[in-house]
Design a protein that fits this description.
This protein is mainly beta. It has one domain: Beta Barrel (Acetoacetate decarboxylase-like), CATH 2.40.400. It contains 4 helices and 13 strands. Strand 5 and strand 6 form a beta hairpin. The longest helix has 10 residues.
């Protein structure tokens, strides 16, 4: 089945970013992906995303759906037919939408786990807490909006951070089969992010010492996107090296 292009509004996209040891990041990546390194660090994080008006592009807005979603991500690069490409690897996706759980990996790319979300938002602050039904993933972050991006060791300023994430619009997600990665690309002509200041952050993913030994994952910065129309284009699945070997 051909997977449809989707239309949506990014009502809120909170990116909480960590600077990570490239070696620690590389251990989490399937081949042929490798960490994208910025100022000596790999870049990883959590995307806390509320989408509205989600629907196939040919469907009226009235039929659009709304959902809260969370994705753990690592910025990556790989060798494409025209040179090095960049994007993100997503080892885990969670959602509050039963439809997303059922349709992810079937009607559109990206398998999802089910999770509960607690959200508190004001014009100047966002708090999102996530608890996966599987019990193995929890997130709780509070971010204040700021005029400037300060204290980041990854990015010199907001403009540099914005370019980095805009250029990494291709996402490849882990699948239960382990034989391929599902691909999806974010497209918008209205890209705009604001700086955030992290007030507090807890993540069972990044706080796990078995996954990230002490000192190998450090909170760096946050960005906020609000009320941006966006489309989502399915990408061809990416074979892992295990697929290539099996194919001979």
């Amino acid at each position: 089945m051909k997977q449809p292009r989707l239309s949506s509004v990014v009502e809120r996209r909170l990116l909480v970013n960590y600077r990570v040891s490239p070696d620690a990041a590389a251990r989490l990546l399937p081949k042929p992906l490798r960490p994208q390194v910025v100022r000596g660090y790999a870049v990883a994080g959590i995307c806390l995303l509320r989408l509205g008006q989600v629907r196939p592009v040919w469907t009226p807005k009235a039929f659009g759906l709304r959902s809260e979603n969370a994705a753990h991500r690592i910025a990556v690069e790989w060798d494409g037919p025209d040179g090095v490409e960049t994007g993100v690897y997503i080892p885990r996706r969670d959602t509050d939408s039963r439809l997303n759980v059922w349709a992810g990996g079937r009607l559109f790319p990206g398998e999802h786990g089910r999770a509960d979300f607690e959200v508190h938002e004001t014009p100047r602050q966002v708090r999102v807490a996530v608890a996966a039904w599987s019990g193995d993933t929890r997130v709780d972050v509070t971010v204040d909006l700021a005029e400037e991006l300060r204290g980041s060791e990854l990015f010199a300023d907001l403009a540099e951070a914005s370019r980095f994430f805009r250029d990494g619009a291709k996402g490849f997600s882990a699948t239960r089969s382990g034989c391929h990665l599902d691909g999806m690309e974010l497209r918008t002509g209205a890209w705009h992010v604001e700086a955030g200041r992290v007030r507090s952050a807890a993540s069972s993913f990044f706080d796990d010492p078995d996954r990230f030994p002490p000192g190998s994952a450090t909170l760096d910065c946050a960005l906020v996107m609000r009320n941006v129309p966006a489309g989502w284009r399915p990408l061809p699945a990416m074979a892992t090296y295990r697929d290539a070997a099996a194919a001979g």
